Here is the input.
Amino acid sequence: MRQGANTVDSRLVSALAEWPVIASATGIASAARFVESDAPIGMLAGIGVRDLERVCRAVVDRRKIAFVNLDSSPGLGHDAGALEFLLDIGAPGVCSTRAAVVERAGTTPMLTMQKVFVTDRSTLQRSLDGVARSSPDLVQLMPAIVISQMTAADRKAMTPYVAAGFVTDRAACARSLELGAMGVCSSDPELWSVRRRSLDA
Here is the structure.
């Protein structure tokens, strides 16, 4: 969101306009399935540093976008060196729960996503403060079922956001989009090929 408040990177807008489900891929086999799927955007987790470059290259070769989950990548820390490594191997994006990491990544060409877990009003306020500070390209808001309990003002402050957690079927995808989510994240490969227009029907 470095272009200005509530301004979304055009690559994300274009991709999510047709394919609103972000593939949540854990491990090499799941990542390979994402690369071969219709989904233009994915989240990569559980992939060690030895394999990350190869996976990221495959993603880029298919003209896809992948956010590497820094919190769940064996061998990677949360320091500047980890971000430099991701930049060097051509990772399109990075994701973390840590606002400081996302803020630092925002100074690089990589796209950024901040994961936010909302369990009560106090964690919501801390999350709002963190997002305001880090200004990520996307917020991953978890769990999706909490979005309906948030005020319109709080949802707007998190925008642009994608819903994650308990997004298990097409109905859950549609509900999240109706509440203002730009997209959803799901580990179910059956949802990766869902087109937005099929949810609007």
